[in-house]
Design a protein that fits this description.
Length: 289
């Protein structure tokens, strides 16, 4: 079984089952549903690599469903192929206008459908690989600053529009410069990799971990309030406390911002977390003196 998962959205049981058998026989993992509303629920809960979408469906037709899918997933993130008997120029044109990746007639031979699906699956796989390379920090294998800012902007916008919540943890390591100066940059690099691995190992699958640059990191925690973020930060602090580079123990200062607070924009939210982190860092510095 290949790892790619295809979602078939069609109110016809016959069409869904026939298409599912075809795709399953060539090795795809297939999900089925009969309405756009049900499909959106599945997409919120599970990873899907390609959608086959009918046009004529009750309550929410294929065009409206595709629009709502595109509100959640970009064109290069989730391919949507319209699979329908509507083959007139107006229907085809509208399909692409609402965000379709391709269009296949239900009257087409099965090999044509398989060929189109295979092309878009391979293309999505390649784009995903290239995207991962461009968004990953080479040293720590964490997401990089570029991805952090883009993700934070997207999450902040969704929070304002849909009322979804998330928390941000911004933290700065203590002592990286000392380790670099005393033992060399190889030791400093080991510190950064060790801290990154220790934190990622205890985070939830839905949490996102970023290296912002130098010794600064950020974690985005979906559906998490400020109290939950404090718990997460303290767990990371404890995990990082177990890291020793030569004779140096590791710690960090952190700040937290919660989307439920009335920030005017993403930058203000980031500045709030950074200011809280700096305040804690000063207190920790004073305690060491």
């Amino acid at each position: 079984m290949v790892e790619e998962r295809i979602l078939i959205i069609d109110d016809s049981d016959t069409t869904r089952n026939r298409t599912a058998r075809l795709l399953t026989e060539v090795g795809y993992n297939v999900l089925q549903c009969s309405s756009g509303k049900e499909a959106l629920g599945i997409l919120d809960e599970q990873r899907v690599d390609l959608v086959l979408l009918n046009v004529n469906m009750p309550e929410m037709d294929g065009y409206e469903t595709c629009i709502k899918i595109r509100e959640r997933f970009a064109l290069d993130t989730l391919p949507v192929i319209f699979f329908t008997n509507h083959e007139d120029a107006e229907s085809v044109t509208r399909s692409f206008q609402v965000g379709a990746s391709d269009f296949v007639s239900k009257r087409a031979q099965q090999d044509i459908l398989l060929a189109r699906v295979n092309v878009h699956i391979r293309l999505a796989r390649t784009l995903r690989y290239l995207r991962d390379i461009s968004l990953t920090d080479d040293l720590t294998s964490s997401y990089n600053r570029r991805h952090a800012i883009n993700t934070l902007r997207e999450w902040f916008s969704r929070s304002k529009r849909y009322g979804t919540s998330f928390s941000m943890i911004f933290f700065d390591l203590n002592g990286l410069k000392t380790i670099n100066d005393k033992y060399g940059h190889q030791a400093g690099d080991l510190l950064l990799r060790s801290v990154s691995a220790a934190c990622r190992n205890l985070l939830r699958e839905s949490d996102l971990f970023f290296r912002m640059g130098g010794d600064e990191f950020m974690v985005l925690c979906p559906d998490t309030d400020k109290k939950g973020a404090f718990v997460c930060a303290e767990r990371m602090q404890k995990a990082v406390g177990g890291v020793t580079i030569v004779d140096q123990k590791v710690s960090f200062a952190y700040g937290i911002a919660y989307s439920g607070e009335d920030y005017k924009d993403m930058d203000e939210m980031l500045q709030s977390a950074d200011a809280s982190m700096y305040e804690l860092k000063q207190k920790m510095k004073a305690c060491r003196q």
